[in-house]
Design goal:
The protein is of the alpha+beta class. The chain has helices at about 5-15, 15-25, 30-40, 45-55, 70-100, 110-120, 120-125, 135-155, 165-190, 220-240, 245-260, 270-275, 330-335, 390-400, 405-410, and strands at about 60, 65, 265, 280, 285-295, 300-310, 315-325, 340-345, 350-355, 360-365, 370-375, 380-390, 415.
Length: about 425
Amino acid sequence: MDFNRLTARAKAILASPRTEWPVIAAEPETVAGLYRNYILVLAAIPAVASFIKMTMIGYGAMGITIRMPFGSALVSAIVSYVLSLVAVYVVALIVDALAPTFGGQKSPIQALKVVAYAYTASWVAGIGLLIPWLGWLIALAGGIYAIYLLYLGLPVLMRAPQEKAGAYTAVTVIIAFVLGWIIAMIVAGMSGTAALMSGAATLPNSTGSTVTIDKDSALGKLEAWGKQMEEAGKKMEAAQKSGDSQAQSDALGAVMGAALGGGGQVEALGPDVLKPFLPERLAGLPRTDFSAERNAAMGMQMSEAKATYSDGGGRTLHLEIQDLGSAKGLLALAGFAALGTEKESDGRYEKTFKQDGRLVTEKWDSRDRSGEYGMILGERFSVKVSGDADDMNQLKAALASVDLAKLEALRNQGVKQG
């Protein structure tokens, strides 16, 4: 295995996909060669990062950090890795089968190439799982950039007309999402962890080569998303050719804004703006401490304000408000995806649903009378209250005492359209 060649290819497909896809299309390749020299290595990145996260860093929830036993984490990492290898091949088969529907030409090896190299962004971004707070956002951004790479690659490798690339990409992405959901459920079952994931996908029914997509549907949103990425990518390539460092920085911001689904950059609210939303008292409990901060990474901004409320006698509530800033587009996509889940076992329940246009989550443990209640406001702000209560209604009432309407009214503040 030539690691220098592997690294060079990964850098090239991420930095200059428009020029790299034709090179990839012309290369003679085999299924075994692609797996041995590329897929097996890069697909291991998120699996290894996940193993380290589960065993050494842990996951935080309701003020508690949870780490998995070494054996369970190892099983989870191995299973997810193996299934991800299978998923790449399955998605490639589907891409090949769909080619004639979208005016393309069938070629199993070209289909595997386009899927494998498009996945590069997601695999590399998997290392973001190790970064506290912003890690999940980096991983998501990688997944979104992978969609853009696929959008650029399908016309080149599968010979699909450019005007049908958006629809071809959208259908492929939904199939990949469903496969990812299935893999997550399998891994969760084998490792003993819970996965709050659910979704449904409807593929267009087409018997000919013409496919039309409702612009307001999920597929339509993804198609528009791909076009935004295309325009941002053109700006980045022009900036790279110009040699202007400021233009390159601005272009990178535009790409990240498009990748995160918002179509532009977002400046997260400052700590001084979020702090007033932490009341002096919550559910009759006095505020005992608070913090507020704004962070940036990879052209993305997020801010957070947190407060603890306690009576000094054992009852404690935590209030968290996050401005996900640059990721507001992802929250919008989550909204129209209509996610919904519900799970109950051994005195605990968890559910996610939409209410009055907002994505809402509830978690409750009747054994120790504690839980969490949160929601997404304005497709941008995450607010939640967690801790001790008599029932879920108390947590709901506590969150309702926060001026949610005023916070939601700030949803467009700091938004810079590209």
